[in-house]
Amino acid sequence: MKNKNIKSSKKLEGFKYAFNGVKILLRDESNALIHCIIGVCAISAGFILNISSMEWVAVVVVCGCVFAAEALNTAIERLSDVVSPEYNEAIKKVKDLSDLERYYLWLLQQPSQVLLFFYLS
């Protein structure tokens, strides 16, 4: 029984760290706040347009992927700054690739949501 309680408390502790990460991300990164606002708009549009269950899955997955990419990009950039505070060409490449991943997902989000809300609904 004790082992189960320890696992549950570890899970709750993990959620605490995750929510702290969301708080840091939204406070420190303007792009994350913009993605969050766009996500709220997409969810609001979903309610207004009464989208289907599968369309809800698409909205949630796409918004979640973009927000996760923003969090991963921020973590990579911050870790890179700690590892090498001075200019480093290898760190620059890592940061550029991290930005590519974030913008690539963002660029995929835009047409997918336009298609979802204006052509499929």
Brief account:
The chain is an all-alpha fold and 121 residues long. 91% of the residues lie in helices and 0% in strands. The model has no long low-confidence stretch (mean pLDDT 88).
Q: What is the secondary structure topology, with strand pairs?
A:
Elements: H1 2-28, H2 30-49, H3 53-83, H4 89-120
Strand content range: under 5%
Distance between the termini: 50 Å
Which fold does the CATH topology refer to? Helix Hairpins
Q: What is the number of E strands?
A: 0
Residue runs with pLDDT of under 50 for 5 or more positions: none
Written as H for each helix and E for each strand, in order along the chain, the element string is: HHHH
State the name of the first-level CATH class: Mainly Alpha
Shape: flat
What is the radius of gyration computed over CA atoms, rounded to a whole number of angstroms? Answer: 18 Å
Number of domains: 1
CATH architecture designation: Orthogonal Bundle
Derived from helix and strand composition plus strand pairing, the structural class reads: mainly alpha
- Helical content stands at over 70%
The total of helices stands at 4
Average pLDDT reading: 88
Largest sheet: none
